[in-house]
Each structure stands twice: as structure tokens, then as C-alpha cells.
């Protein structure tokens, strides 16, 4: 099989001739042909010849599928196309490469040869011919005469030219990393050292052999800053050198920058007529996130005794203008180890889920937390004996947050077990008790030394463990040195201390009276609201821990007003009640925002003026300057309270009193 292709500016085509040998000799006849009109877009003749070769390759491939047992030869009169076919498609442009890959794939195993134009029958397809011309053309019907001759008489293929046309251009792109002397220095983190290094560089440039002078340091600093600016702000510097506008997207476009006589980039602004120094009016711009900028900020931060971000930024802007300002300075200060060690920050993790005991449905005090607080002082029953210490054992329910308070006289194991027994008899036996780990008291204050020794003692832990085993109670501890794991009972301890210290003040009560007050505080804590019972704004009822204990808030009986009674007529509990009420003749501090607390004037309450609801919010007071009215919110009641006998001083009577502590 012999195939021919040709092309012109009008069309391109291909034809195939079958050469057979029989009794009558060797004959050649036209087997198939195909032609195409040239595209409307003008392309070169070599590209059209390549399109004809691609058409011939498709036609030869279709004929080869008929399984003829013969050789296949492809003829073309374009030496450029033959040179393209002999090369790799990747060496040429996309148009040529795509068609070459198709030709080489379809004509694999076939031979491509050169035919003279006058012997190429496909020339009639490319230039167009009438039907009569095709019928009378011997070349078209039987092909060139050398098809029936031996291979020695076939046209020879001339030397193919170097494929230069449509060759893909090879461009070598190199990326040369910019190397700056400043960033490659090993002393880049020390601004004073970099100043001295570049001072020596300036001496070398000017060939001076004397020691470093102030002028050398100034020139070295200018050279250092100039190289720093060129490394990050080179585009802006070139624009200013050529007197072009800086892009609006530049980080320094709003600073109206300009180049000074030394080539340094400075802030413009509107302070030309100011009496400030030139450096203060036009600070040197420092690029953001540069090692020299960070080294300068770190140097001035240490020089000015670790100044804060705002004061340090004000100091820096006397000479330099770091881009980013406060954020840049704060970012450097945050990495100061000395400042961090003075004010360290602990790691904060997201809070874990509530434990199962906190979210499981159970009766009150089935799972309980316990903690101690104190010591507190109570009056001895023996006359002239010093006050004695006592402690509060606070139990809190995990599911309802209800609180139970037991008062114990000492820190012995027996006293604690007795308090635990009273709690069990009152609230029921729990199945699990949580408490602080013993090592939590290692860092306690001196007043908690006894608590520490109690919880660290092996005998106490063993006794409590055995007592709990007998009652089938599981005793568990929170992790060591982790008081935040016991935040539930720590909050209850804080509430109990809040009410107790404000109710007692500096008074000294007996043990039974203190126990009564502890029960009163327990009732108040258990009556605190947890959340509203309904979303109706007219419904003022709230859910309290007491609802889980007695079905309603625990309220104490109404105490009578004891303010008008003399202190000598009161019994012990009435004195406790009186401590929680506001008194006439109490000594107070009058708050004055213009003076420190130690300079606030003293005054005595002469009269409490009640409001429409019966609650006193204004008082008539006597000060050194006279009598005036003040809001109770502006008065601070002193812990020391005078007990006044006799007539009211305001009526002109004589007052005599004794101070009590």
C-alpha cells in the first residue's frame, strides 16, 4: 500500500494506491482518497502539509484494519513535514505537537518517504480538478509509474533540514535569592552589635584606621537602616527615586514618605513648621516583621527598664517609625522572658464536661463533697479563758447544690467522724464522698497548718477509710494540687465565709450561738435561687436547693427590731441578731472620691431615713464640719461599734459608752 498527501492554500488531501502482482504482471490502482478544505484562518503551507499528512495517517490506519498482508509506505513532497515526523512532538508548538503525536501513533511500523511534486497524485486533490481531468489522468488512476518498478527505481529522499520552524522555544528561568548582609549576620538579634559592625564597615569604606567614633556609629547606623529598608521597601524606594507615585496598596502610602539626603526613607507629615527636631518630625521608617526592627525594639525595651507597649512606642517614635506600631511592639514584648517571668501566665484549657455525679438523677446528698474552713474563734465557757478555735465542715450535694454545715471544735479524727455521723443521721447515708487531696494543703497559710497536718496524717486517713468502709461509702480524692477540680465545694466555702464574717464582725460568740448562726447561714445558702420556675415575668418564684430538701425555701422566723433596746437588756441570741441590723450612733467612714481611704472623714449616724418601702437608704450623719445627709451607699460601717447608754446625743443628753471588740 502506497499513500500520498499534499496541501495548498485551498485544500489538502490524501490518496492510497494498491500495488498487486499477478499473472499479468505488477499493477497499481487507486484504492481510496479523501480531501478537506483549508480552514478559514490563514495558516502556513507547512502546517497545511502537516494536516494532509495527518489525514493520510487516518486513511492508512483505516485501510490497515482490513488486515492486508503487505507493507505500507507514506509519501509526502514536503521535506519540512518529513523532518517534523522524524522528531519528538514535545520539541514543537502545540499545533504541530498534537498532530505529530497522532501521525506517529497511527503510522507506527509504516515508512515515510519523499516524492517529487510532479509525481505526487495527491497534488490534484489539493489544487482542485474537474471530473473529466480525473478520468483522463493516468497519474490519478494508476499513480506514478515507479510504483510498479523495483525499489531501486523509487525516488530518493533528500537530506532533511533541521526542524527550525514551529520549534518550541526553551526559556531558562533562574531564581536568584536576594542576599542581604544584614539578615545573614549572626548578631542580627543585637542592635548595638549591629551598629558597631556597620561602623567598622564604614571605616573600611572610607579607609580610616583610627578607633570607632560617634560619627562612625552614626554612619554605620544609617547604612544599617538603609540596607534594612532596601530589603523590604525596595519598590517604594525606586518609585521615590524616579519621582513616581507610591501604590495605594503599599503599607507606607498613608505616611507620605520621602527620601532624605542620606537615602533613608522617612515619614512626611505636616510638621514642617514645628519646633521639634528633624528626627522627631520625620522619623525613619522601619519595615514590619524584620529582624533589625525587632532587635531595635528589644534593645530600647531593655534600655528603658522593660517599659510597656505604649510608653515604649512613644520612645521609639522619637526617632523611628515601625510599621504596624503597637502590634509590632507588643509582639516583641510578649517574647521578653524577663517580663514573662515577672508576670507568668498559666496554661488554660477548655473546661471538661461535668462529671457523671453532677448530671445524674439522684436524691439529695447521695453524692457529696466535703471541705473544711476556718479557724473561727468562740468564747470559752470558763471565765477569763482566751478564745478557742473551731472549724466548719461543709458538705455539698453534687446534684442539687444543697449545703449542710457542721461545726467542730478541733481537728481531731474523732471530731471529724462525729461531724460525718451527724451529717449522715440528718441527710442520709451517701454512696460516695469527694474531698480535696491531702497535698492541696502543702502551700496553705500558717493558719491552715493544723488542717494540713490532719489531712496528711496516715492515722486520720486510715480511720476515715475504715469508717467509710463500714458504712459502704466510697471516698474519693481530686488530683493533687488541683483545687479547681473541687470548685463546687470551694464556692460553698466562700459563701459560708461571706455570710459568717459579715454577720460576726469582730464579735465573740459562744459555741452554741456560733452553731446556731452556722445553721442560719446554711438555711440562707440553701434558699439561694438556682433559676426561675417559669418564664412568666409575673411569677417571682425561683427554684432553690431547699425545694429538694423540704419542698420550699427555708426561711427563718421574723426577728423583732432590737435597735432601740439597750445592749444590757439583750440575751446572747438577741445580740447575734442585733449584729445583723443597722444601728443609730454607728461610726462610719464617709466615702470621698477626691481622697484616699485613709483620709476619709469619720461620722456618726444620727438618724436612718426610711423610704416608701420601709427600707432605709439615706442617713443623717454628724461630721466634724456639721450635720448632713448621705446615701448609705456612700458610707462604710466600721467594725468597731460603740454601745451607747443613756439619751441620744442629738437631744443634748450625756452619753457614756464602752467599746467592745
UniProtKB/TrEMBL annotation:
<feature type="domain" description="DUF5641">
    <location>
        <begin position="570"/>
        <end position="638"/>
    </location>
</feature>
<dbReference type="GO" id="GO:0003676">
    <property type="term" value="F:nucleic acid binding"/>
</dbReference>
<dbReference type="InterPro" id="IPR008042">
    <property type="entry name" value="Retrotrans_Pao"/>
</dbReference>
<dbReference type="Pfam" id="PF17921">
    <property type="entry name" value="Integrase_H2C2"/>
</dbReference>
<dbReference type="InterPro" id="IPR036397">
    <property type="entry name" value="RNaseH_sf"/>
</dbReference>
<dbReference type="InterPro" id="IPR041588">
    <property type="entry name" value="Integrase_H2C2"/>
</dbReference>
<feature type="domain" description="Integrase zinc-binding">
    <location>
        <begin position="290"/>
        <end position="345"/>
    </location>
</feature>
<protein>
    <recommendedName>
        <fullName>Integrase catalytic domain-containing protein</fullName>
    </recommendedName>
</protein>
<dbReference type="Pfam" id="PF18701">
    <property type="entry name" value="DUF5641"/>
</dbReference>
<dbReference type="InterPro" id="IPR040676">
    <property type="entry name" value="DUF5641"/>
</dbReference>
<dbReference type="InterPro" id="IPR012337">
    <property type="entry name" value="RNaseH-like_sf"/>
</dbReference>
<dbReference type="Pfam" id="PF05380">
    <property type="entry name" value="Peptidase_A17"/>
</dbReference>
